[in-house]
Amino acid sequence: xxxxxxxxxxxxxxxxxxxxxxxxxxxxxxxxxxxxxxxxxxxxxxxxxxxxxxxxxxxxxxxxxxxxxxxxxxxxxxxxxxxxxxxxxxxxxxxxxxxxxxxxxxxxxxxxxxxxxxxxxxxxxxxxxxxxxxxxxxxxxxxxxxxx
Length: 148
Hints:
Number of helices: 7
Order of helices and strands: HHHHHHH
Oligomer: single chain
Pfam families: YqeY
Structural class: mainly alpha
Keywords: Transferase
Largest sheet: none
GO molecular function, one term: carbon-nitrogen ligase activity, with glutamine as amido-N-donor
Shape: globular
Number of strands: 0
Protein name: Aspartyl-tRNA amidotransferase
């Protein structure tokens, strides 16, 4: 079953069960996909859905510190719940060690030797690790590996 179909079924189920947070979270994915279809005049692929979901996770994760600063515990819990819901639709996340192995292998394959090659390495890795690892972590590991 495609991710689009799974989202639709889960959306209907959340509506039936009156799970407002889950319904709204899934709707935000579907809305982002629809907007992408309209803007780019394309059919959204599985890969596009993964990118959309990863982007939504990133936005919510980056908002957490702001809510913590303002002491909005109610919103923090809701945001964490949204992140958990979104994560169920992403591929299995790789561990730091697995990401480091992929980064090292890619650097060796590309023959990258200095920080000047970072863009080339990140270009390859962003496609390979999309939705499977945090881009910030990947960037940090590439910098660490290239500076050795």
